Amino acid sequence: MKINNFRDLLKYLVIAGNTVFIIIILINGIKGNFNSSPIEKFSNCCLLIILVLNSYLILKFSERNS
Prior knowledge:
Elements: H1 3-31, H2 38-65
Helix pairs in contact: 1-2
């Protein structure tokens, strides 16, 4: 397997993993009717922002390096 193919595979695996975590966080929030402490809400929002930003940056910089 070439390095570029391996990088592409890792890129899509990371994005898929981020998407799965985002879905899990949202499902847990829906099941709990979004009733949680303010600290937990803040933590979940920050985690969602980090995961979305990570996926965006991976896609943006992988296009530039290709």
